[in-house]
Fold this sequence. Notes:
Layout: E1 5-7, E2 10-13, E3 20-25, E4 32-36, E5 58-62, H1 80-93, E6 99-104, H2 107-117, E7 122-128, H3 154-161, H4 173-181, H5 184-200, H6 203-208, E8 214-219, E9 240-244, H7 251-254, H8 256-270
Parallel strand pairs: 4-5, 4-6, 6-7, 7-8, 8-9
Antiparallel strand pairs: 1-2, 2-3, 3-5
Helix pairs in contact: 1-2, 3-4
Amino acid sequence: xxxxxxxxxxxxxxxxxxxxxxxxxxxxxxxxxxxxxxxxxxxxxxxxxxxxxxxxxxxxxxxxxxxxxxxxxxxxxxxxxxxxxxxxxxxxxxxxxxxxxxxxxxxxxxxxxxxxxxxxxxxxxxxxxxxxxxxxxxxxxxxxxxxxxxxxxxxxxxxxxxxxxxxxxxxxxxxxxxxxxxxxxxxxxxxxxxxxxxxxxxxxxxxxxxxxxxxxxxxxxxxxxxxxxxxxxxxxxxxxxxxxxxxxxxxxxxxxxxxxxxxxxxxxxxxxxxxxxx
Length: 278
């Protein structure tokens, strides 16, 4: 008995360093698409996209440690390599042998770490508005919040999250609620982990040596990362770089149809399918 718990909204996997919440949609025998959300978000950020992906794929979503319904790590370790290890452990528990891995925003760093550690598991990577290096970060400094001021008000959260979308886009209430439910420690540590990972080595440099097929999708109205920085990924041999017109930092919510179409086209080429029974 592994102690895992099934629920209508997904499953809780009892892992060594803290419970991990996963959601699965689509045929269980179909090729796997793994979706990894960004900092201060959860698997719910993919809700609008998932129905567009499940016809041909088993779509797995993971709440990163301290996010959504996943527990904070018992050892307090939010480092990106550790996030990659925990994602790998969750996929092992689910019996996944191969996956096309999709990361949104800082979720792309956990996706890259997973590929660095488990190259046999990750067949291809798709990154959506994932900043390539800290020199491309353009968002203004958010209002300072101290632990004693946590949780913030709805208005404070909307102010913090506003650059996560194109100008004029209404921040969804469910995302406001999700962030408010996180601890100050989880939000601050996860964001610092992403900065540390990028400062150690820029993402294109990491991806160049992996030899994995790469798709990069960037909204051309991103207000967190300089949209032209998407071109930095072209140093990766064979990288496909797509700019989405009129989309901001979160095209998975702002423009699900176009985002899904790009992902499906990429996954179709790079999916590893199980051999048919004879």
